[in-house]
Amino acid sequence: MKLFYTPNSPYARICRIVALEGGLGDALELVRVPLRTPDSPSLKHGPLGKIPLLVDGDLALGESRLICGYLDQRGDGPPSLPGASDWQSQARESLMSGFLEGITNWSREKRRDPTEQSAFILEVEEQRAIRAFEFIERTIPAPPAVPPITYGDLALVAALGMVDFYELVPDWRGAYPALAAWLAAYEALPSVRDSVPTMAAMNPLTR
Ligand SMILES: N[C@@H](CCC(=O)N[C@@H](CS)C(=O)NCC(=O)O)C(=O)O
Description:
CATH architecture of the largest domain: Up-down Bundle
Structural class: alpha+beta
Number of strands: 4
Strand order of the largest sheet: 2-1-3-4
Mean pLDDT: 96
Distance between the termini: 28 Å
Oligomer: single chain
Order of helices and strands: EHEEEHHHHHHH
Helix content: 40-55%
Strand content: 5-15%
Number of helices: 8
Bound molecules: glutathione
């Protein structure tokens, strides 16, 4: 199995953590690709040029959530996705993945040339993020002794990784201490620690 990815992609990060925690580290070959360029190797497997993209034989599977479901079936960890009729878990997952999507939009806008940035988008995403931070701070559980490897939890981990990397919300740990303590439990895992976004891995072609 191959996973086409970029090191700083939060969506690929979720898949990489699920794979590692499910014991699939050796079975999954990571293939780093450039984005938004016509010579990306991922385009041999599909027209979209988006990552993460999992390729296994003649299967080319996009969308991080579907990829996690596929990895769940092959790995030896508990499922990262909730049962189809577990609506409370699905709702929690939808909150975290919506938070991640907003943070991704915000960081993408901030990475554009300042003369091209939309003040409106920046404000909308900042307000969405602050509302989400306040809600999550009120509802986050106590730091888990054994952090559950679920898509929803990892979407929150990945979103906070983006907040830190792009310095979107200065001193959020001081403002939201329960969330900071929850994240620290995940940051103790090597799969989480080793996949944080870094300056060295910036992809100049991804905006
Ligand atoms: N909904 C998708 C989002 C994936 C996504 O937005 N990937 C970004 C990188 S983080 C991408 O491929 N960008 C390149 C492009 O849009 O051309 C998922 O969950 O996998």
